[in-house]
Design goal:
It is a single chain. 38% of the residues lie in helices and 16% in strands. With 338 residues, it is α/β, with parallel strands linked by helices. The protein is built from twelve helices and eleven strands. Bound molecules: adenosine monophosphate.
């Protein structure tokens, strides 16, 4: 069984380096830390490292960032939780002796020697929990908290697709290790007052396409005016998740690239890169994301665009999707009163 092949590799290698993806989220950080700590607890003699770049503030209680030298990769097992290799943070992963991919995206590429991908599972942390249970690993409160944090964040607090009996049983077992849920949720929900002011702006100023796609563009000017980070702005995507008629919602976030003094050709390196976060209920949106250098899950995807022209084209495609969905599912939507 593939799950035990993974365990055999963990047993075989003395050094294990766990990578995360770029722009890590709660699931990514929770899975990485949970797996690192669990291997360390069950095989204390092994060297286990967690690598990547910046840890978002809301993940800091669970995030681990170790320093790994280049030459440590050559005899290391590398474990990665990322769909496509371009989104792996720290491309040194390629220089590892053996690579295992553990992931839950369906638009994956097979860059590992073992690729363990379960798209039906709503959080990577739930896959790690499942593996630890199968391997009979000992778990402590810290491991349980990291994995629970991953599951809670990637399932929208147990609301999204893929939630089933098994996930609740796993979460229940994790809770039995004594997770401080009050601190966990406090850390997730408390925000700086500046962010609420920007949230207020979103409610006053979001736009809708003809058929109801709700969107807001966090321009560089707006981000500076509200004195927040682009990450803070991007995290407001779900402010738009509960508007009747708007089963698709999107935020655009200017990335404010530093000018590259060596690049004279604007076409090679555009001045602005716009991060797109697409979300939906019922309607598939990752196919549209794929048309704009992106991908992701059916109802939660991301993309990158470079101009207003592309933004309008993307909105038009989403609008068309929503229109078709509303026409096809008219009776059902009427019955649900949405
Ligand atoms: P985000 O909006 O960044 O939270 O991304 C939502 C989902 O889409 C996550 O599962 C990401 O891994 C995935 N995703 C975001 N951006 C991209 C991209 N450029 N290419 C492929 N997948 C992406």
């Amino acid at each position: 069984m593939i799950e035990f092949e993974i365990l055999e590799k963990i047993k075989q290698y003395n050094r294990i380096i766990i990578h995360r993806h770029i722009r890590p989220d709660g699931d990514c950080i929770g899975s990485q830390s949970g797996l690192k700590l669990a291997i360390k607890l069950n095989y204390p003699e092994k060297e286990v490292y967690a690598v990547g770049d910046i840890i978002p503030e809301y993940c800091t209680p669970y995030g681990i960032l170790d320093n790994v030298e280049d030459d440590m990769y050559k005899d290391a097992l590398v474990i990665v939780d990322t769909a496509t290799d371009s989104r792996i943070c720290d491309q040194r992963y390629k220089t590892g002796a053996y690579i295992i991919k553990i992931d839950h995206h369906d638009d994956s590429s097979e860059y590992g020697n073992i690729n363990y991908v379960l798209p039906e599972i709503p959080a990577c942390a739930a896959i790690i929990t499942k593996l630890l249970n199968m391997w009979n690993f000992e778990i402590n409160d810290k491991i349980a908290s990291s994995l629970f944090f991953g599951i809670v964040t990637d399932t929208g607090r147990f609301r999204y697709r893929g939630i089933n009996e098994e996930i609740f049983i796993q979460a229940g077992k994790l809770l039995s290790h004594g997770i401080d849920t009050e601190s966990l949720y406090t850390n997730l929900y408390l925000k700086e007052d500046l962010i609420y002011k920007l949230q207020g702006y979103v409610y006053l100023n979001f736009k809708r396409t003809e058929n109801g796609v709700a969107y807001i563009h966090f321009t560089e000017k707006l981000i500076k005016k509200f004195n927040v980070t682009k990450e803070d702005a991007a995290n407001l995507v779900n402010c738009l998740d509960s508007i009747k008629g708007s089963l698709i919602w999107v935020v655009f976030v200017d990335q404010m690239l530093e000018p590259d003094p060596n690049c004279t050709n604007k076409l090679e390196r555009p001045e602005n890169e716009i991060r797109v976060r697409l979300r939906s209920r019922f309607v598939e949106v990752n196919d549209v994301a794929k048309n704009y250098r992106g991908g992701g899950h059916l109802t939660a995807a991301g993309a990158t665009i470079y101009s207003t022209k592309e933004k309008n084209k993307l909105l038009k495609e989403l609008d068309e999707k929503l229109k078709n969905y509303k026409e096809t599912e008219k009776l059902c939507l009427e019955a649900l009163k949405i």
